Amino acid sequence: MLRSDVTNMAYRVGRSTTGGLPPVEGLSAGSKFNVGDKTDMLNTAITASRHHSHKDKVTQVKCMGSYVITCSVDRAVKCWDAHSLQLKLSMECPRPVLDLACLRLDEQRTLILAACQFGYVYSWRLNHEKSLTSRMCNVFNFHVPNPIRTLVTSPDGAWVSSGCCYAMYEVQGGRLVESVRGSLKVWRAQDIVTASEDTSTEYADISKQAFRTVRELVSNDPRRKYRMQPRDELQVSRSFGVRSLAFTPDGTLLVVGLGTPWDSRPVLPDSKVVLCRPDSLETLNIVTCPGHQVTAVRCCTATPHVIVVTTNDSVLAYDIKAEGRDT
Q1: Which of 69-90 are b and which e, b meaning 16 or more Cβ less than 10 Å from the residue's Cβ?
Q2: DSSP assigned state of 106
Q3: Between the N and C ends of the chain, which has fewer C-beta atoms within 10 Å?
Q4: Residue at 23 is within a domain
Q5: Is 37 within a domain?
Q6: How far, in Å, CA of 217 to CA of 16, rounded?
Q7: 207, part of any domain
Q8: 271, 277, 294, 308, 312 from 265: Cα distances, Å
Q9: How remote is the C-alpha of 129 from its chain's centroid?
Q10: For 72-88, how does the pLDDT look when each residue is reduced to its tens digit (9 = 90+)?
């Protein structure tokens, strides 16, 4: 993205999300100039956009047709017009929102799932037939009381998967020992859609399709040469949680990125990426990322590659292979 495009985007946000603010003098859409020459005008546009913007770190951005949906630690889920960046709808959550997922019900309705810090998932039903409206549905206890770090839906809309990653402290030998834990769960999307309308209980507990801890993920590799010693499995299970998830474009495989809740600490041992089946969470392959802390995993639609983003400014690419050596 060119710096002039960033300037134009900041101008559109400042003009449209503040309810009809006058244009910034000397700044017009489509103008091209060096950002450094117009610092004052750019700062004015950004300041004006803060009227409706998030008050804390934005944790996820999703595109849904002509709308863009964002969530933040400030407990808000906001819907923006994708063309004008005008705020269309704001939904408040009682807890910080760490991730969100969208389930398309039909052409006019979408189910929004907001994953929160203490393991709860709040759901809203969006109706965008004429004007964008929302209705609060049910609350699900996916990983209570642990924070949900990632929440994804399969491309075919059949599965919903979530992972948690958190730090815990134990007293061992008279001293406080820190460790990281995590788990992975998968649900049928249809069960979530059905339960979202069941308001008979405050927190609906949906029967999950599959469940795995981190130790079960790394010890369930069917290939003997990739199996780990029990001591190594215990070390990995106490060092990593589920940091990021991604489905392959055909929805037949689930990519799990193991990491820690922090972005600045050194990683010992090396982070790992696990490839498994979405229905049973059976491990098919394990990739080690030496010296890297995994923060996000994504799957390419054009080529069978997994993109791994790490904290040390690195982007790694792996072939999607259920069997055989990775490249």
Answers
A1: bbbbbbbbbbbbbeeebbbbbe
A2: S
A3: N
A4: yes
A5: yes
A6: 47
A7: no
A8: 12, 31, 12, 18, 11
A9: 27
A10: 999 999 999 888 888 89
User: Distance from first CA to last CA of the chain, Å, rounded?
Assistant: 30
Number of folded domains in the chain? 1
Torsion angles phi and psi, residue 39, rounded to 5: -60, -45
Q: How far is CA 83 from CA 16, 33, 80, 87, 316, in A?
A: 10, 22, 9, 11, 32
Place of tokens 């489905």: 247
User: Distances in Å between the alpha carbon of 90 and those of 79, 120, 122, 189?
Assistant: 6, 19, 14, 24
The two tokens of residue 23 are 């244009």
Number of C-beta neighbours around residue 179 at 10 A: 15
Residue type, 171: V
Sheet with 305-310: list strands edge to edge. Answer: 294-299, 305-310, 315-319
Secondary structure letter of residue 102 according to DSSP: E
Answer yes or no: is 174 within a domain.
Answer: no
Instruction: State whether the Cα torsion 77-80-82-85 is positive or negative.
Output: negative
Closest CA to 236 of 288, 282, 275, 174: 288
Are β-strands 109-116 and 97-104 bridged in parallel, bridged antiparallel, or unpaired? Answer: antiparallel
| Helix (H), strand (E) at residue 20 | none
Instruction: Name every residue whose Cβ is closer than 8 Å to that of residue 198 and which is 6 or more positions away in sequence.
Output: 138, 204
> Does the pLDDT of residue 14 top 50, yes or no?
no
pLDDT per position as a tens digit, 258-309: 988 887 776 666 788 999 999 999 888 888 887 788 889 999 887 778 888 8
